[in-house]
Amino acid sequence: MYQRIFVPVDDSDTSNMALDEACKLAKAFGSNLRLVHVVDLAQFGWGGTEFLDATELQKSIKQAGEQVLGQAGDRARALGVTPDCKILESWGDKIAAVLSDEASAWGADLIVMGTHGLGGLMHLLMGSVAEGLLKVADMPVLLVRNPATEPSHGSVIPREALRSWWTRE
């Protein structure tokens, strides 16, 4: 049924739940699994670099994204699925569009991702990558939510990226 399952990942519990579901489907259908993590490098490419080394911060963010993706790949392999993993870079683009474009280019026939269930004012201000993806994707999207927790969200900037940048020598 599904031959190519595309899974955006971050460092949240909800993302891990979505990955687990995608692995179940991949095993059941013998599907290829692609894991992706988007790093938005544009948010640190602005002026004012006399106070901030934007290039170093972007490098740290990309390295942290690779770590998030590596951990997701390890999780998939532990569940018996060998994924293809890819870092996607965004330079201020809508993350949903970056994901949709990559899923289409790869030939995905299903996207599986976690949704953090932001509501109220936070949803109004931030929007939702998952909701945006539902609007632009040209293939089915399976959203996985963790009902056992309060609405949570993975780091906009992976914590390790900030930590490594802040503590660099």
From TrEMBL:
<dbReference type="InterPro" id="IPR006015">
    <property type="entry name" value="Universal_stress_UspA"/>
</dbReference>
<feature type="domain" description="UspA">
    <location>
        <begin position="1"/>
        <end position="145"/>
    </location>
</feature>
<dbReference type="InterPro" id="IPR014729">
    <property type="entry name" value="Rossmann-like_a/b/a_fold"/>
</dbReference>
<protein>
    <submittedName>
        <fullName>Universal stress protein SAV1710</fullName>
    </submittedName>
</protein>
<dbReference type="InterPro" id="IPR006016">
    <property type="entry name" value="UspA"/>
</dbReference>
<comment type="similarity">
    <text>Belongs to the universal stress protein A family.</text>
</comment>
<dbReference type="Pfam" id="PF00582">
    <property type="entry name" value="Usp"/>
</dbReference>
